[in-house]
Structures are given as C-alpha cells and as structure tokens.
Amino acid sequence: MGRGPLGGGRHRGMASAAGLDHAEACAQSLVATVVSLLGDAAARRLAERVLSLVDPLEGRSVAVFARRALGMAAVAEGDYDTAYTQFRSAFTDDGDPVHYHVSYTVLAELAAAVRRGQQEHAAVPLERSARRIGTGMSARVAALIDQGRALLADPEHAEPFFRAALAQPAGEQWPFERAQARLDYGEWLRRRIAEARPLLSAALETFQRLGARPWIERAQAELRAAGIEATDVVPSAFTELSPQQQQIVQLAAHGLTNREIGETLFLSPRTVGSHLYRAFPKLGITARSQLRDVLEGTLSGTRVQS
Prior knowledge:
Layout: H1 3-6, H2 8-18, H3 21-37, H4 42-53, H5 60-76, H6 80-88, H7 107-112, H8 119-133, H9 139-152, H10 159-167, H11 175-188, H12 193-210, H13 213-225, H14 243-253, H15 258-265, H16 269-283, H17 291-296
Helix pairs in contact: 2-3, 2-15, 3-4, 3-5, 4-5, 5-6, 8-9, 9-10, 10-11, 11-12, 12-13, 14-16, 15-16
C-alpha cells in the first residue's frame, strides 16, 4: 500500500472541482480500496460514492474496484454473505469477468468469502478464468487462482494448491495478497502447529506493517491457537494512539498531505494537523519523514509458548 494508490487524494480533489466524475471515481476507488484494508468504515461511503459517479457498463474497472472495497469492508465486519455478493459481482452470471483484468484480482477473496453450499458457485468464475487466460497467466493471477482452489477444495486435497500459491517468489510484489495466502495456509495447518507458526507470523508482520487491522486480529487469533500468545507481542507506541490518530498517521506515512487526509477521513486539514501534532511526541519523533519507520517497527516480536 505505497504512495501510488493513496496519492489519489490530490487527484480526486482536482477532479471533483473540475466536474470530471470519471476521473474522481478512478481516484476515489483506489482510496476506498486502501481504506477498506485498514478496516475503516469510511470505505463503504467512499465506494458507494464511486458507484454513484460512473455507469458500470462504461467504467467497468472502476466499478469492480469499488465492489472489491465494499467486499473487503464486509469481510472486516464478518459479513461474509455481503462480501460474497460484492466479489461475485466482478463476474457475470456465466462466470466471465466484468473487466478483462481487474476482475481476476478478486478471485481468492471470492473463494475466501464462500460459505457452505456456495463452493460450486464460486468455482465457476475461478475455473472459467483459468481456462480463459490459459498459458498467458501472470504470476499474480496464477497465485490467486491456486489460493482460490485451495480454499474451495476438500480439506484433504487443498495443500498442493496452497503450496503452489506461495511457490512463486514474484508473489512478494503483492504483500497483502501474499500475507492472505500465508494466513489461509496457516489456518489450514492447525494440526501441524510447527509448520503453521512461521506462516502465521510472517502474515501478521505484513498485516501490521500495512496497518490492516481486521487481518491483524485474525492472524493474532490464529497465532494464539498455535501457541503464541497475543500478550507476547510487545505493543508499540503506535497502538496506544486513538483509532482516528492511527488512521491519520498511517495515511501521513504513505505521503498524503493534511488536506488529502482530511478529504479521505472527512476532517478539516487543521484537525488533521492537530492530531499529528499530538501524536508525534507519543511516537517519539519530531518529523513527518519518520512516520514510515515507526509503522514498520510496530511488530516488536513474538514468543512461542513451550
């Protein structure tokens, strides 16, 4: 979640002022996606705004991004039925992609949102996508398809797909998706605790670095089940900030200005500045440029129970 997606705040404001609805929707869809990964309820409002700005038949990629953000927001709240509906909307009833490449990015999330009795419905777009792309499949999409197959497979047949999803080193270019795959595999490995621990620890480290709160909580729960207590993770100064201060610090660390943060969180630039002014001493820093280092150090370490 680098500067690129979050930098949409500046372009979003310019587009809105000029009345360029499609350009605003493009920028805001990226912001909504990132905010949904942070577990912020504002993601739903941002994504719904996107859908009000574009014709889904003319702005297919933007619409899929918005639906993905709505799906991730639903996952964060544990509402998997809504999440499934949003992710499934990236494909037609026949299983074809609504958009020729953006739709494929939700394949693993679609499979993860499946509940009993829906496996066959989710398998249709996944396998249809695999056949449609064929040998021209990118490393990213191949990993997502393997992860989806693992999640949809009978438990005794899932492991080869989990291993395939994590086999390509190129997958590290998409840290959130790689962490999701590690978390899913670690959950599957519950009875083989020694193998699950490094996967779950690596997933947690990535989620904490990215500030993806709902997935942090899920990874911590799995680590506790694997014998690593959540109390053994030393809290950083960052975790002692208020939820709103954490959001502001995360966005500032990714390069947004006070005005851009205010547009994303519906606050005035003055209020954003005030929160940062109060947060800096708590974090032990004096400059905005130090924020990224603070976030990257939020995972202090874990200790395995004997």
